[in-house]
Amino acid sequence: MKVLIAVCAFNEEETVGKVVESLVIRGFDVLVINDGSHDNTRITAMMAGARVLTHLENFGQGASIKSAIDVCIAENWDAIVTVDADGQHDAKSVISITDAWLSDPTFDVVLGSRFLYTESHVPLIRKGVLNAAILFTRITTGLALTDTHNGLRVLSRKACTKLSLRQSRMAHASEILKEIKSKKLTWREYPVTIHYTSYSKAKGQRSFAGAVQILWDLVARGK
Amino acid sequence: MIFQILLITLFFLTLIAGVIVLTKKIRLAGIFLISVSVAGGLVTLDPEYATLFANYLGIGRGVDLVLYLWSLTNFLFIGLLLSKTYRAEQRQVEALRKLSVKNFLQEEISKNE
Lengths: 223, 113
Description:
Structural class of chain B: mainly alpha
Strand content of chain A: 15-25%
Order of helices and strands of chain B: HHHH
Helix content of chain B: over 70%
Largest interface: A-B, 18 and 12 residues
Largest sheet of chain A: 7 strands, mixed
Radius of gyration of chain B: 24 Å
Number of strands of chain A: 7
Strand order of the largest sheet of chain A: 3-2-1-4-6-5-7
Oligomer: heterodimer
Strand content of chain B: under 5%
Distance between the termini of chain A: 35 Å
Radius of gyration of chain A: 16 Å
Shape of chain B: elongated
Structural class of chain A: alpha/beta
Distance between the termini of chain B: 78 Å
Number of helices of chain A: 9
Shape of chain A: globular
Number of strands of chain B: 0
């Protein structure tokens, strides 16, 4: 089974090198989606051993995942594993979620969950917003998930061909869940660790404002 | 008098636009345009009609009704514009994104040859 690691990156020259290296030395094929970065993300990723697909402008993480899905289908990969470039997802978590899918590839999607492990020390405000997102997802999709906005996930080739994503920015995470439900894809959650560094916290979505933006994108731009 | 003629002409053109939109089966927009043009034309010819419509709707004065409808029309128009702009932006992003993917895949094929 061939698995492609897809790392979505926007201005991540500080961390993308280490993220890619940690995966390449473990034998993974890594594709970095350079989402219109203005810094040296592209060169750094290439020197670390990744192939790099560059977007002409910054289109958003949702668009980056769509590009990763297009490559998966075009190059006949059996699955892609989406990974953040800011170092929140360590190689150990990537390996374990990949192995989890490989041990039972009948699952179309494996979703990482930081709340199935106690090692992820989630900042309080972010935890509150994520819990609200979990409740929102349960109401809108009926999916009983413990973590609805985790960037670490495995999408099988079948899932890649069935998913029809329109959201280009952060609302894609919620859209993927809606698609899992509507396309009746089989899924499971798997415990992963999220590392919150000062860098990743500064880079990450402002929790409350980000949540409002995602809600707006889903409601007003969902069509 | 000149102002009334101009407004009547404008409302007449709006009526035509509404009919055209209706023939394209965009019902709600067509009905809205026709209603606005007919009501606007009547109010222009005889401003007392504004008071009549206002009283019918439970609004005190004709001028208040005109103000409310004007505000509502603007909000709807802005909403439609935002929606169109967003859809155009989505199409543009998708086209450019697909171009990026195509370029990448072609480069990969060239590298492997």
